[in-house]
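Recap for those who missed Tuesday's class. We walked through two folding examples back to back. For each one, the amino acid string is listed first and its predicted C-alpha cells come directly after. Nothing is annotated here on purpose, so try labeling regions yourself before you check the end of the notes.
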Amino acid sequence: MGSVIAIDAGTTGVRSRAVFTDGRPPVAAYREFTQYFPRPGWVEHDATEIWEAVKTTLAEVIGALDGDEIAAIGITNQRETVVAWSRSTGQPRHRAIVWQDRRTATRCDELAAAGALPAVRATTGLVLDPYFSGTKFAWLLGPGGVVVDDDLALGTVDSWILWNLTGGEVFATDTSNASRTMLLDLRSRAWSPDMADLLGVPIGHLPEVRPSSGRFGLTSERCGVPAGLPVSGIAGDQQAALFGQMCFEPGTAKNTYGTGSFVLMNVGDRCPDPAEGLLTTIAWTLADGTTSYALEGAIFVTGAAVQWLRDGLGVIAASAEVGPLAASVPDTGGAYLVPAFTGLGSPWWDPYARGTMLGITRGTTRAHLARAVVEAMAYQTRDAVTAMTAASGTPLAGLRVDGGASAMDLLLQLQADQLGVTVRRPVDQETTALGAAYLAGLAEGVWTQQELLERWALDAEFVPTADRVVADALHTGWLRAVERSRGWALE
C-alpha cells in the first residue's frame, strides 16, 4: 500500500508526516529551527535552515517507509511569512520576515490614515495590519531590503519549499496562502493590480497562483529526495486544518486551541462581504476550480493564559494540572478572567484592552482562577462564532476541535454548552498535516472526498447539557467583564 507525505512547515519547526492509505499509524519526523529577534518587535527565520529541516525530516520519513510507494507530497505552512530569493541561484537575499513581525505597523497606520482600509477590506477580506504579507514584501523592496532586479522572487514559505523541491522549476503558491498576502483579489483569485500599486509590490516578482489541490510539479533529483514525486497539495496551516477536519460544507467549523486560537468556518463558494471583527479568507480551491471561502476569528490568548498561571503566578506546576484543578469546583464563584494580555482579537480587535480579573471575593481560590481561565477559552470562541454566524447568515452546524487544550473534557463541555452545538474531537489531532496530505492525495486520485470523510474518526463528542438561560447569563457576565477590559491602556 502507498502513502502521501505532508510537509508541515510551522513557525518553530518542520514536521514531515507519512499518511498511509490503509490507515496504519503515521510515520513522522520533526526538526526545530532558529528564531531571530534582531530588534524589538522584529521576528525572522533563516529560509535556508527551514529548507534543511524539510530535507532532513523528509529523508527520515522516506527512510522509514520500507519501500512503500509515495503517491504524492503536500505542503502546509506558517502563513504570511515572506521569503526573498534569487531565481538563478536559489539563495535567499534576506532572512524571512515572520508573520509575528511588527516592523511595518507604522506603514499600516499611514495607509489607514490615507483612507485605504475600505479598499483593502473589499478586495482582500483582510485588515491593515503588519500580520499580513503585503507590507512585509514592500519593506523588503525598500531601504535596508533587497536589490530589485529581474532575478528576484518574492513568496511565502510554501513557495520557497515548492521551488526547492522542484529544483527551481516551479514558482507558485495556492489560493489559500495568496489570500493572506493583502495582494489577492478574493473573487477573481488573481493578484490585484490595485493592491499591488497601493503597497508598491510588483506582481512580476510574485508566484503564480494555483488551486490548493492539483499537481504543482515533480521533485527534482537536485533537492535531496527521490526524484519524480508529485507535489500536489498546498494550503496555509489553518486552512489545511479546516480541510483535515473534513469541514467541507457551509456552516462546518473548527477551532484550534493553541497558544491562541483560530476559529474558521466554511461559508461556501460565494465570497462574503467584509464582516466587522472577522477576516475573510479562501479556505481552498480544488483542481476543478471549485473554491470554498471561510470566515476566520483570531483569538490571541487561550493556552497562553494557562502558561501565565504556571509561569507568571505559580498557581500550577505543569499545564496538565489546569483541567483537573478547574474541574474541582462547580463554577468560578462569579469570577471572570479576560485574558487580554496583548489586546483582544476577534471580534473586538482592541489593541488597547488589557487583562482583567473581576468578581473576586474572599472565597475565590486557585481552583476558581483556573476555571476562569478555562471558561474564558469557551467564551472567546463563542464571541467569534457569533460574529461568524451573524455575518454569513449560516448557522453553526457543529464544531470540530484540535490543539493542546482540546484534551480537556471540561473545556469542550463548556464549549458545547456555550455554543449550543455538539463539539467533536478527532482521534488524530495533527489536522494541519492531514489536510495537506488529503489535498495532495485528492489531486492524485488516492482518495475521493467521500472516502476522506470516512477516514475522520471520533475520539469524543460533547453535546450541550446546560440550561440555555444559565449559559446565556454566564456569557452576559463575560461580556460585562470584556467591556471593562477594553481601552484600558488609553486611560
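Example two. Treat it independently of the first, because the proteins are unrelated.
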Amino acid sequence: MTAAKDAFLVRITGRVQGVSYRVWTRNEARALGLTGWVRNEADGSVLVLIAGPSSATAAMLDRFWTGPAGASVTNVDPQPTSGDAIPDDFRITA
C-alpha cells in the first residue's frame, strides 16, 4: 500500500525575503522527501509548490510558520493543486 500524496501551492508572507527562506525551504523539503520548487515573488512573498506523502506535506506546512532564523511569518496560505508539472526533485527557481 502506498501513502496518499498531496500537492499544494503555498504563498508565505511576512519577513520572508532576505533571510534565506528559499534555501531553508529547499533543505527542509528535501529532508521530508518532498518535490517541488520555491521562488521569491515581486510582492515580497515566497511562493512554494510542494508535493509528496500527506504526512510530509502536513509537516512542511507547519514548518513554514517557523522558517529560518530572521524570518517573521505572518501568513501561510496553502491551496491544493493538481500536482501537474511537479519536478522530480526540490529546487529554487528564479
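Answers for example two:
Helices lie at 21-31, 54-63.
The radius of gyration is 12 Å.
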